[in-house]
Write a structure and sequence with these properties.
With 461 residues, this protein is mostly helical. It has 18 helices and 4 strands. The strands form 2 sheets. The chain has a two-stranded antiparallel ribbon. The chain has a two-stranded antiparallel sheet with strand order 3-4. It starts with 9 loop residues before the first helix and ends with a helix.
Length: 461
């Protein structure tokens, strides 16, 4: 398109068109997307309306303010890691797929000097404690053996991790300003994007191959066989599928809410694309699948909200700092963070995770490990995403959800955290902290955007 043409881009033209389904009377379009997204959620005691009111009018504004702070806007990521599962050479050539990393001098000194530490004092403390732990093994060990022991220790520390984290010391790892690289529609779709989600659902959601998921190619049974299978599996495997479906739904809402509607030589106009939203969630177009996806989004919201309520003691410790080097600003951000966590804890209808892994101890431990490894595998698949901006947000959101799961399954360790001093039983790196809150910020934004789409569809004729 020639610069200065002022003509709508082809991708944005659909945003001005009426939906590709019969509209009916006012509010009919709204009912097709939202009529089933109401009331209580499966496997929960909570209802959609309570989540909407709590998120949209209490939590969402505060969370947005937190995520605009320096500590939470800079995320270190390696977007050059090769895909570990197949040869992926078809990187997205679309301009909106690009990610612009930060020059090092734009990242606050406190973040660059200790990207996974909490404060200058914590740096020294952890280094001393690590030396003690290493020396306690055997001071006569060779340097090579000591390094091996250190690696074993690090492996033990990460054994509760649900994600394949990037090596932040790799020369390919770069800081990205999340506010300057927002998640939105990039044009990345088709076989490459389908391959990613197909691998996630077919190979990592505990589903047997003979049970085809809804809307899979060649299947037209309304998902009857799939949902019959899903209803019969244990609550943990059912929850795993719902978490992935909810994450998928959330990402689709972001892409529909921040769509490139118009581009001129001087500016781009981003906004909600109703047609795109309906293609993904309208009950008629999706043959009943869309509203289920939206309910799974609310399930994901409850899981991540529960994790925030559980991790409060970790952040409440006086010695914990959100360290950027600006002492007064850091104190303000921590106060806002604690306000959000106390608000999360006050939610009246939390998800009860005690139903997870509650049977025979040996079988429960085996299932938990399978759960962890399946999710870790999904985090690796994010390195196969061809669009770099999609890869950035995919990696961040899977790490955020993985961190939430780590928190939920570490409740006993969190309860034992001392008010002062280091806690070896439970730790979070800065990467995990930034991912946890930004990932929940994406889910919170999705719930807020649903209200906007609901209003737009209600007024359509």
């Amino acid at each position: 398109m020639a610069a200065g043409s002022g003509v709508l881009r082809v991708l944005g033209l659909a945003a001005l068109l009426l939906p590709v389904v019969p509209c009916g009377p006012p509010g009919a379009a709204e009912r097709r997307c939202f009529c089933q997204v109401t009331g209580h959620l499966d496997d929960c005691t909570c209802d959609v309306e309570t989540i909407d009111a709590f998120n949209n009018y209490k939590l969402f504004p505060r969370l947005n303010e937190l995520l605009e702070s320096d500590y939470f806007r800079y995320y270190k990521v390696n977007l050059k890691k090769p895909c570990p599962f197949w040869n992926e050479n078809s990187h997205c050539g679309i301009r909106d797929c690009a990610v612009k990393p930060c020059p090092s001098d734009e990242v606050p000194d406190g973040i660059r000097s200790g990207s996974y530490k909490y404060s200058e004092g914590a740096n020294n403390l952890e280094e001393c404690e690590e030396a003690k732990r290493l020396g306690a093994v055997d001071g006569s060990l060779s340097e090579e053996t000591q390094q091996a022991v250190l690696q074993w220790t690090l492996h033990d520390d990460s054994s509760d991790s649900f994600c394949e984290a990037d090596d932040i010391y790799s020369p390919d790892a770069e800081y990205v300003d999340l506010l300057l690289n927002p998640e939105r529609y990039t044009g990345y779709k088709g076989p490459d994007a389908w391959k990613i989600w197909n691998s996630i659902y077919e190979e990592n959601c505990f589903k047997p191959q003979n049970v085809k998921r809804p809307l899979a190619p060649g299947r037209d049974d309304g998902g009857h066989m799939f949902y019959k299978w899903l209803k019969g599996v244990c609550v943990e495997k059912r929850a795993f599928y719902k978490l992935i479906s909810g994450l998928h739904a959330s990402i689709n809402i972001h892409l529909s809410a921040r769509y490139l509607l118009q581009e001129t030589w001087s500016e781009k106009k981003w906004g909600p694309n109703v047609t795109e939203f309906q293609q993904r969630f309208d009950e008629v177009i999706t043959r009943g699948e869309g509203p289920r996806r939206l309910k799974n989004l609310y399930f994901l919201y409850l899981i991540e909200l529960r994790a925030l309520s559980k991790v409060l003691p970790f952040f409440e410790r006086p010695g914990f700092q959100l360290y950027t080097g600006n002492r007064s600003h850091d104190a303000e951000v921590k106060n806002l963070l604690l306000e959000i966590l106390h608000l999360a804890k006050s939610f009246p209808l939390h998800f009860d995770e005690n139903s997870f892994f509650a049977g025979n101890k040996r079988e429960a431990a085996k299932l938990k490990e399978e759960f962890r490894l399946h999710f870790k595998n999904i985090s690796k698949i994010m390195d196969c995403v061809g669009c770099f901006k999609c890869r950035l947000w995919g990696k961040l959101q899977t790490q955020g959800l993985g961190t939430a799961l780590k928190i939920l399954f570490s409740e006993n360790l969190i309860e034992k955290i001392p008010e002062s001093g280091s806690s070896y039983g439970f730790q979070l790196t800065r990467q995990e902290i930034v991912a946890l809150f930004n990932a929940f910020g994406r889910i919170s934004t999705s719930v807020r955007e649903l209200e906007n789409f609901r209003n737009i569809l209600h007024n359509m004729r």
